[in-house]
Structure formats: structure tokens, C-alpha cells
Design goal:
The structure is a single chain. The protein has one domain: Fumarate Reductase Cytochrome B subunit (Up-down Bundle). It is 59% helix and 7% strand. The protein is built from six helices and four strands, in the order H-H-E-E-H-H-H-H-E-E. The strands form two sheets. Strands 1-2 form a two-stranded antiparallel sheet. Strand 3 (211-215) and strand 4 (220-225) form a beta hairpin. The two termini are 19 Å apart. 23% of the residues are buried.
């Protein structure tokens, strides 16, 4: 199956930067979180707590910045085009995704060989990416409820009480870590199986890759680009 071209316009540099800030922060949070939960290395507990708190704050701030940028910056809403619209539109229902939910599920489950031509994010990706900012903010909130520096602030103390106390918050915070681990695994799987090497080269090395071109005005293939 021929694929849409991969252009930088779909993933502008500011979004790539926030993407990898998220990635690095999440990895460090998961590693430090496991060490904090299972303190078999007491000599580095202080370092792990510091890294955990720092990366948690970075993740929350980066999430807020990314959401704001979605309303401010433009990006291509589909592969194979350099035409741009406000980035937030890629996270909302698009004509280019209409009726594609079931075909994409079949594709990911290896029931269907080819996937439909879609917006930059297919329906399953949209649902996941729309949910992640809310999960990050909630994860950050539970973290601030547990952090001694902020735990007694009314906004966090009220949340701790509503969730049933510090132990309940710890359990929720720990459980949420596995939600993010599962998301990261699925995210990598979806990216690799759909975009393959061209997408990896674009995201890691900023190298474009030719392929079919797409017109966002007619919502259909408009040609083919072999110049990149």
C-alpha cells in the first residue's frame, strides 16, 4: 500500500521538542517512581525524589505549553500536504477521519491488511491524545497532594480529603504510572506500525520522505511527491 508523504509541516519543531520533553520526563518519572516505591537503593533516594519532583513539574508545565501552542501554531492536519491549519483541529473530529474508527481497529488487530488514508491522527490516536493532557494534569495534581511542600495548601489538601486520604492518593498516583506505561507502549506500537521508518526519520532526524500528496480542501489524494 502506498503511503502519504511525511513532511515537517505535520510536526513543526516546537511540537517535536515538547514531544521529547514529555518522553524524557515520563521515563525519568517512571524510573524514579519505581525506586521511590521500592526503596532498595536508599543511598540515592534523595536524588530520586528530587528528579521525580523536578520532572513532574516539567511534565505539567510542558503539557500546558503544548496545549496552548495547539491553539496558536499551525500544522498540516494530514500527511502528504504542506497546507496548514490551526494545530488544535488535528485533535478534533475531521472529515478526513469520518467512518474510520472500525477500519483502524481492524488494522491494529491485524484483521485488515491496509489502513484508510486518515488525518494526521487517526480516530484512536485522537481519543488517546485528547485524554493524555487530562491524565497528566491529574497525575500532577496527585503528586502535589503527596509532596510535603504543597500537601497542606487548601487546593491540594481538599483533593486529598476527597480521595480518602494520603494512602488513597498514593495508590491512585502509583496506579496512574502503569496507565502511562501502557500508553507509551501502545503509542510506540501505533507509530511504528502506521508510519514505520519514514515517520521515525522525521521525528528523530527531521528528514522528510516522499509519497502520495493530499489536498485538504477536497479530502483526497492529489498526486505523488518523489522530490524528498
Amino acid at each position: 500500500m502506498a503511503e502519504l508523504a511525511h513532511y515537517k509541516d505535520a510536526h513543526p519543531l516546537p511540537f517535536v521538542i515538547t514531544h521529547y520533553v514529555n518522553l524524557i520526563s515520563m521515563i525519568l518519572l517512571i524510573l524514579s517512581g519505581f525506586i521511590i516505591h521500592f526503596p532498595y537503593l536508599p543511598a540515592i533516594m534523595g536524588i530520586c525524589r528530587g528528579v521525580h519532583i523536578f520532572c513532574g513539574i516539567v511534565l505539567v508545565v510542558n503539557c500546558i505549553v503544548r496545549v496552548i501552542l495547539a491553539f496558536v501554531l499551525d500544522s498540516a492536519p494530514v500527511g502528504g500536504t504542506r497546507q496548514k491549519v490551526k494545530d488544535i483541529k488535528s485533535f478534533l473530529p475531521q472529515a478526513d477521519n469520518k467512518g474510520q474508527l472500525i477500519p483502524w481497529i481492524k488494522f491494529y488487530l491485524f484483521i485488515q491488511k491496509d489502513h484508510p488514508f486518515s488525518g494526521k491522527f487517526n480516530p484512536l490516536q485522537k481519543m488517546a491524545y485528547d485524554l493524555i493532557p487530562l491524565l497528566i494534569l491529574f497525575m500532577g495534581y496527585t503528586g502535589f497532594c503527596l509532596w510535603s511542600v504543597t500537601a497542606d495548601m487548601p487546593i491540594f489538601a481538599a483533593g486529598t480529603a476527597a480521595m480518602g486520604g494520603l494512602m488513597s492518593v498514593r495508590i491512585i498516583h502509583y496506579f496512574m504510572m502503569f496507565v502511562f506505561i501502557i500508553f507509551m507502549i501502545i503509542h510506540v506500537y501505533m507509530a511504528v506500525i502506521e508510519g514505520g521508518k519514514p515517520l521515525m526519520k522525521l521525528m528523530f532526524a527531521r528528514k522528510e520522505h516522499g509519497g502520495l500528496t493530499y489536498d485538504i480542501n477536497v479530502h483526497d489524494i492529489s498526486g505523488e511527491d518523489h522530490t524528498v
